[in-house]
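Structure catalogue
Derive tokens from sequence
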Amino acid sequence: MRIPTIGITLGEPAGIGPEIVAKALKSNQIPKRFDYKVIGPKAKFEAGKLSSSSAAAAWEALEEAYKLWEKKEIQAIVTSPIHKDNLFQIGFPYPGQTEFFAAKAGVPRDKVIMAMSSPKINLSLLSTHVSLYQAIKSITKDKIKLASVLLLEFLKKIKKKSNLTIAISGLNPHCGEGGNFGNEENETFIPAINELRNQELPVHGPVSPDSVFREVLLGKYDGVVASYHDQGLIPFKLVSFYSGVNVTLGLPLIRTSPDHGVALDIAGQNKADPRSLISAIKLACKLIPREKGG
């Protein structure tokens, strides 16, 4: 049987991507029943110094990774960090890698969910890399339902547990305190949650955002739907920085990534920690259906 292959991009080559990829492959901590293909420039770039050519190399690696997946030469994609602003300077038209793969796969942006996974917390986000104003405006009943359903489907793949339950975090302090601090919970969140419950899905909420992550850590919930990027990422990185993984839900392909950036300040100094990338590789391997993996 064919050995499944994981494609690993180098990301921004002037950052720590090349270093953490090399360290991960030498770590003896990644599954041995898979092959690994590094995708990115063979030429070396000056560490810590962004350029249009380094941005172009990062973009080209993403394009190559998707083409390899389309041709079934790789079964999952693990992406190293990119420098978004450097890519924007050369015309990269996507807010991030999540949206790049959504566009390539022909999936509307509003049907793709960014999620974060670690042994301590699993969460999905109602928005990604937009302003807080835009994030709040973009919250809809359908988005809450999609983020909940996809998170539950993801949890079923990674947890050996039959009675999963997730929380849906509110947006406003104290979930709006009956409408006194905002009406989004009453107008959008509660109707979405009621519809999910009518489908007999194990969702709870809205739960006050100042307590929901503590309850996840205590084991009350298996995951949480966060209302916007930083609501979820601040507590996630606080407890899972070295083990956290970014995973895109709603795509026809498996795509994971470490939960940190390009770290230009330590690039080329042999200081980069590969643990988050190792976790991303392990998760990608885990998500490949067993019948494909032998």
About this structure: The two ends are 6 Å apart (CA to CA). The chain has two domains: 1-108+251-293, 113-245.
